[in-house]
Design a protein that fits this description.
Elements (H helix, E strand, L loop, with lengths): L7 E4 L3 H12 L4 E4 L5 H18 L5 H9 L1 E4 L7 E4 L5 H14 L5 E4 L6 H5 L8 E5 L9 E6 L5 H13 L3 E6 L6 H17 L5 H10 L6 H8 L1 H14 L10 H9 L23
Helix pairs in contact: 2-3, 10-11
The chain binds 1,4-dihydronicotinamide adenine dinucleotide (NAI).
Organism: Pelomonas candidula
GO molecular function, one term: (3S)-3-hydroxyacyl-CoA dehydrogenase (NAD+) activity
Enzyme class: oxidoreductase
């Protein structure tokens, strides 16, 4: 099985979906972009146009190549039949399952559905599907055009040839793909969750500010500190992932969600995407009382 010339539908035009659409279009695929939020797909395409202009201005792309990539992306207001769907919608099992049921009614039998879930069991997501073998995790990292790693996640029912086709595709897109089985948090989020949790406990104990924690971890060699990284991920998504990994680990206290996260979500301080989280954006000044 090959997906090298696949027509692709990206469902969810948020942070991740927009980045995935960009990478797929730059790799030469015809890409459709769908979101249930009115005009989100158009807005994502308009933002991508700016991103591609920026890359052209920096000399990383020629104007022709950028224009051709942009022209390959079509915002759509309904799901369309393609060879590969990449799902990047809200981190919620029931909503994702409902989407897969809709997709299966529409897609040809051989089409592949890849989910960008950060934490939900691919095995569980496939339950109830007519063809669970065609569901596979394709877990990108944020920001998608820059981050090389893609975890290709096989659930109990995923066909090996489907996982391999997605693995090969990620490689063609210049990514570093790895195979893993569907366990809570997969590889990176399994390790990253306790890292965020400790930072959140430090904050709750009022032992350090977000700036101090981030500065310490950066000087210890991390590219970003945990607070700025959570702001980049988005606290709504990050909190949903924390809850999901906590439940999937049978409520092991190492993975306990934090009230700090709950408060940020309740306030709508979702991080970069809402202009405020631990910091204010775009300037990056501290935003929380300590
Ligand atoms: P986001 O909140 O930026 O975007 C999600 C988009 O999905 C929104 O535009 C929303 O309107 C749309 N949506 C919700 N329900 C929908 C439905 N039923 N059909 C179509 N569109 C729908 O979220 P983000 O950050 O892009 O996350 C998306 C997925 O990617 C989640 O599963 C998340 O766990 C995963 N992910 C997120 C990462 C991050 O750093 N934010 C990293 C890796 C994976």
């Amino acid at each position: 099985m090959t997906l090298h010339n696949a027509r692709i539908l990206v469902v969810g035009a948020g942070l991740m979906g927009a980045g995935i659409a960009q990478v797929a279009a730059q790799a030469g695929h015809e890409v459709f972009l769908f979101d249930t939020r009115a005009s989100a797909a158009e807005a994502a395409k308009a933002k991508l146009a700016q991103t591609l202009d920026g890359l052209t201005a920096k000399g990383k792309l020629t104007a022709d190549v950028a224009a051709a990539a942009l022209a390959r992306i079509t915002p759509v207001d309904a799901l369309v039949a393609v060879d590969l769907v990449i799902e990047a919608i809200v981190e919620n099992l029931d909503i994702k399952r409902a989407l897969f049921a809709e997709l299966e009614a529409l897609l040809p039998r051989e089409a592949v559905i890849a989910t960008n879930t950060s934490s939900i069991s691919v095995t569980a997501l496939a339950r109830g599907m007519q063809a669970p073998e065609r569901l596979v995790g394709m877990h990108f990292f944020n920001p998608v055009p820059l981050m090389k790693l893609v975890e290709v996640v096989s659930g109990l029912g995923t066909a090996p040839e489907v996982a391999q086709a997605v693995f090969d595709l990620a490689g063609r897109w210049g990514k570093t793909a790895v195979h893993t089985r569907s366990t809570p948090g997969f590889i990176v989020n399994r390790i990253a969750r306790p890292y965020y949790a400790e930072a959140l406990m430090l904050l709750q104990d009022r032992a350090a500010t977000p700036e101090l924690i981030d500065a310490c971890l950066r000087s210890a060699g991390f590219r970003m500190g945990p607070c700025e990284l959570m702001d980049l991920i988005g606290h709504d998504t990050n909190f949903a992932v924390t809850n999901s990994v906590f439940a999937a680990n049978f409520f092991d206290r190492r993975f306990t969600p934090s009230l700090v996260q709950q408060e940020l979500v309740d306030a709508g301080f979702l991080g970069r995407k809402s202009g405020r989280g631990f910091y204010r954006y775009p300037e990056g000044a501290p935003a929380l009382p300590v």
